[in-house]
Amino acid sequence: MVTGRPSLAIGTMGVIRVYRVANGYWARVLVRDPDGRTRTMGRRAASRAAAERALKEAFRDRVDFHAGTDITAETRVRELAEKWFVSLEAQSPSTRQRYRDRVDKQILPALGELRLRELSIGTVDRFLKTVTKHHGAAMAKMTRSVLSGMCGLAARHDAMDRNPVRDAHVITQPRKAAPKSLSVKEVRQLRALMTYDNKAVDRDLPEFVSFMLASGLRIGEASAVTWSAVDLDAGTVEVRGTVIRLTGQGLLLMPTTKSTAGLRTLALPSWCVRMLRNRAERRGPGTIDDDPVFPAPKGGLRDPSNTQADLKDSLEWCGLPWVTSHVFRKTTATLLDGAGLSARSIADQLGHAQPSITQNVYMGRKIASTEAAGVLEQFG
């Protein structure tokens, strides 16, 4: 049976042929582009060697051009990661940073030099089990999500027959117990105890913690509150953004919160307003309205991660090692719930998205109920 000449592989060229022409030499070759079509390339030069060399350089440039926009089975995982990361421009800076961390800390050290054709289901499965073993299920689940996004991009470029992450071992986490909250008595004791912790006082934690309990803010949101967002006469605070740390840029005050529901105005209990008024009177010369209410001990923006670590130290000193900043939010929500406030009012206080599309569309939002401030008077 007679068969035709086999097709060139994508991105390759055939045999270069050189011809003598009137003004020198003409080198030509068949190439197969990423679209599957075979085309002719040619270059002219004064000598046979120069013509062949010019054609090879032109072919290399052609391949480099297509490689800049295409992903193939020969692409390495580290190259795929960069192409995938470019596609995340619509994501928030904090989300991109979390994904970047998983790429740099987990995926690239283990898989970065593999070519996509080598990234089998078994390889991915073993990798994810290793991440789970050494870093825990939560970290492994995020890593799995990032790697799946990368492989999905490769599959859409036909560089992989299927997304191997989808068939890899599914990571499960044991069901967590419902987070505990502090009682009113425990809150008052904590606020008092923390004022006797010299390290906590040096780190300006007592009033920061009191503010978080009075407002239910996330730690990044509380760190981002500036004096211009506080209205002491009205007894309110505007939640306008959050503090995050980005690699290569340091701490940034981003004019966004965890969700659009996070942009809100809160009424504060009177004891918190008095605390902020006293704090305002203690402001040093040169303080401007755009300065944070709770700066870092040495000035500037407060780092949420460092503050979490400082809180851990102080809470252990206070005999409450199980308490975290999330427990503060849980405590605020529990007290409001016990006082009979609606789920809607509590969600507005905490900056959560609404559970019902009807509530989202037909009910006003952004201003949390002043009832919350009355209930939170109990912490004072």
Keywords:
380 residues, mainly alpha, DNA polymerase, domain 1, hpI Integrase, Chain A, 3 domains, 3-stranded antiparallel sheet, 15 helices, 8 strands, 11% strand
Biggest β-sheet strands, sense, barrel = 3 strands, antiparallel
Strand order of the largest sheet: 1-2-3
Portion in beta strands? 5-15%
Distance between the termini: 93 Å
From the 3D structure, determine the CATH topology of the largest domain: hpI Integrase, Chain A
Name the CATH homologous superfamily of the largest domain. Answer: Intergrase catalytic core
**Helix percentage range:** 40-55%
Number of strands: 8
Structural class: mainly alpha
User: Which architecture of the largest domain does the CATH hierarchy give at level 2?
Assistant: Orthogonal Bundle
Radius of gyration from the alpha-carbon trace, in angstroms: 30 Å
The CATH first-level class of the largest domain comes to Mainly Alpha
Low-pLDDT stretches are 355-369
The number of domains: 3
Shape: elongated
Mind explaining what this structure looks like?
It is a single chain. With 380 residues, the chain is mostly helical. The protein has three domains: 51 residues, no CATH class; 80 residues, DNA polymerase, domain 1 (Orthogonal Bundle), CATH 1.10.150; 196 residues, Intergrase catalytic core (hpI Integrase, Chain A). It is built from 15 helices and eight strands. Strands 1-2-3 form a three-stranded antiparallel beta sheet. Strands 4-5-8 form a three-stranded antiparallel beta sheet. A two-stranded antiparallel sheet has the order 6-7. β6 and β7 form a beta hairpin. The radius of gyration is 30 Å and the shape is elongated. The protein starts with 16 loop residues before the first strand and ends in a 5-residue tail after the last helix. About 4% of the residues have low confidence.
